[in-house]
């Protein structure tokens, strides 16, 4: 049996958003290495697998990435069917490519299974079209948290004309706001803050760049949450109907 690891995106939280291919991988799994933000309900597809928590969350105690690498390698070399189960999509701020490259360097076959990312699911649940004819011709996914604490080119993002979807931005709301304003973005640019995307406890708060921090404080915004900044963040179900 060839050693193999599946890198599977579990989606943003709603277990019904799991893909058929992800279900197929889980049904074959003997070992499931699961991230913190994965909904435990998806484990109904692998009732006989051994579940190994390897969570990584900002501001919390996290499993070292090097340990995750070694654990995947160990189980794969034992001939186990290993699923590395990640929230959202493995390659959208999910370290999927890092893990795939490391495993490949050690002779392990890897198969990637895409998952729906939180930015897409959260927007849809709030009636926000990330692109809209005549208003938003593109969407840009960024993270406010970088490995080396370097700053993004906020001026370019402010002038880009796309819908900005910002992951891991709750702790940096002030920096995001000030940087976009300094880059020339309008103070009245609509903002949507979406917490727990796709889950029953999903909450949303509509705001503008000018009042982003105050509204987030009143709303008591907490992670995990997505920020959506752009004209479409002021739209709802009516805009979806118009764009059809």
UniProtKB/TrEMBL annotation:
Keywords: Methyltransferase, Porphyrin biosynthesis, S-adenosyl-L-methionine, Transferase. It holds the Pfam family TP_methylase. NCBIfam families: cobA_cysG_Cterm (TIGR01469), PRK06136.1 (NF004790). Pathway: Porphyrin-containing compound metabolism; siroheme biosynthesis; precorrin-2 from uroporphyrinogen III: step 1/1; Cofactor biosynthesis; adenosylcobalamin biosynthesis; precorrin-2 from uroporphyrinogen III: step 1/1. It comes from Zestomonas carbonaria. Belongs to the precorrin methyltransferase family. Residues 4-212 form the Tetrapyrrole methylase domain. Its EC number is 2.1.1.107. The gene is sumT. InterPro entries: 4pyrrol_Mease, 4pyrrol_Methylase_sf, 4pyrrole_Mease_sub1, 4pyrrole_Mease_sub2, CobA/CysG_C, Siro_Cobalamin_biosynth, Uropor_MeTrfase_CS. It is an enzyme of class 2 (transferase). One of its GO terms (biological process) is siroheme biosynthetic process. SUPFAM superfamilies: Tetrapyrrole methylase. This is uroporphyrinogen-III C-methyltransferase. One of its GO terms (molecular function) is uroporphyrin-III C-methyltransferase activity.
